[in-house]
Design a protein that fits this description.
Helix content is 0%, strand content 53%. By secondary structure, the protein is mainly beta. Among the domains are: 334 residues, YVTN repeat-like/Quinoprotein amine dehydrogenase (Methylamine Dehydrogenase, Chain H, 7 Propeller); 89 residues, Thrombin, subunit H (Beta Barrel). The strands form 14 sheets. Strands 1, 34, 35, 36, 37, 38, 39 and 40 form an 8-stranded antiparallel β-sheet that branches. A 5-stranded antiparallel β-sheet has the order 2-3-59-58-57, with no helix packed on it. A 4-stranded antiparallel β-sheet has the order 5-6-7-8, with no helix packed on it. A hairpin with an 8-residue loop joins strand 46 and strand 47. The protein starts with 11 loop residues before the first strand and ends with a strand. The N terminus is likely disordered.
Amino acid sequence: MLRQPPPSRRRILQIAGAGGLAAAVVTAGASSATASPAREPRTTVTDLGPAVVQFSLMSGLLVGDTLYIGSRNLEPARVIGFHVPSRKVVSRTDLPAGSTVAALAVDPTGRFLYAGVLSKAKGKPNLFRWDLASPDKPAEPLGKIGAEPNVRDLAVAPDGKVYAVGGNPGIPPALWEYDPSTGALVSLGVPDPKATLARAVAATETTVYFGAGSMLAGGGDTSKASLFAFDRAAKSFTSIVPKELEGDPSLRELAVVGDRLVIGTSGSGEPAKLAVMDQANPSSYTVVSAGGNMVKTMTSDGEQVYFTDESGLHAYSMASKTVSRVEFDGPELGEVWGVDHRDGKLLVVSAYGFVAEIDLAEGTSVVTDLAGAGATVGPQLGMGIAAGGGYVYVGGTGAIARHDTRTGAVVNFAVPGEAKDADVVDGVLYTGQYNAQGIWAYDPTDGKPPQRVAKFASEQNRPLDTCWDPCNGLLLVGVQSDTEGGGSLWIYDPRTGRSAIHTNPVDDRQLVRAVATREGVAYLGGDNMQDQGPRATVVAFDPVRGRELWRIDLPQSWGVAAMAVRDRHLYGLSKRGEFFVVDLRVRRVVHTADLKGISPGFAAMVTNRGTVYGVSDTTLFRFDPRTFAVSTVVADINGGWYSGPHLNRDERGMLYTLRATDLVRIDDRVR
């Protein structure tokens, strides 16, 4: 495979043992769907311990001498207090709902810390308040913004009122207000009904600034970057987005600096932008190219605005109106979720689980690992999974956990973003890395950490499914474009190091959620995140020549969730358990079934030992190769996945997935 110089100073963290190899033998029984003929299966399930263990984070805010840091993909969600002078974790509160603390804000007195969470739990609160004067008391739930929206950003006005934004695809984002004097939590309205997500809010005595767009489920007639000023007295919205920002997918970050409003966007194809606007006259502003894919996590010392993107730390000079890179001698920061200025230093909260104190004058840094400073690590929700060469790999947030199947030892590799799916080929791990990180590889025999081997257009940002094509020797990756709609097929050749991308191989609305292969032909499963347009199209695609061979529009109400090939049959599941089988010789559907009882949502499929297996959020199951009838292999598997279940196999025919947040090995022998 292609070898490239490794990124500088990546960290490798040795984790304690895998927690034992307790095995359980279960006998598979028929599900409530059509049962298969009795074949005396014998299934052994071995628990390999927590899949990914770390302290992962998604927010950071300096209050006095303490950095408050919100966890990510850990249960319970928590906020810790990191005392900067002592470099120790001195406080913690656990939240009774949510998996991730995505937003933090403090009231004008510095006493009350507000936290907003991401949560899939219906009816649970997503806004909390922690009294920092009594840190031993748990945070207080304040209520829930919207029907099911996540809280993405918070701001507190000088009078103490709190403003929250967020949203989920399909629910237009509103501006929410919490009044601490009355306890009322109310919606102030939806300024942009075509936006899919609001990620930025800022507040002054007179105005609340609302930034939105379509960072998720974009495309079609969804909005691009939008910015509204909400007049707190008149209770009205006015659009003030600079025309130069209107083509960017989303407004990503807002900050009030004196009498200026600093605005950051997410880019798509072109670099993101940074704008500085006169609050008294919104038509007076300056716009510059920020250089990276997004502008996020801002702070200021009054003369410089410091911000981060996927490539590092930057400074915008308010005087010269230019952007420069902040150089220092520290490690790669990875994804940054907090940056604050204090006494000539920048305090950077990294998704790798550390705080970097950067001395701007000296160009030096001090890095403190939060786990070593007292942050409690825990089992994390998993991303992708792969197995082979004596190892099992599970993607986390900012990390890939490598499990040694012989010794049980676990090592975490720091890698930017999330390994959404992965495969092992000839002992080498290949991952599809979110967000817009391309394909990464790790060879356990060369002593090097994981490294990126292929990069693609930034708007093709969310890899969903990886598949090895043994005939052509190609790695195939199905991808979703969060901002533009549709998706792509990534192709990587490990022998030559060459890569290619085919944008919208299904159509401009359907992303590529599933990929399977047979005899050198790739089969792409489409899924449509929009309200209109076709969905559940299967395209036969020649990955070498880059052209479509044929397609089938499936009569399904939901998009394709997963596919696998056995002999001449392509098996597939929709996102609501609609099962189909396509005979690839005659190119038509030859079998269907309703499996929503065991596969109610997202799913994954793999062919192993001549049988196709599937896993849902609830159940591991197999299909009879002759009748296509389904049988349950492991009931109540209930895998702890962040964005849909995954399933993979190794060379010995062992299956690997998650049960809760534990990695499990399944030896399923069908006589």
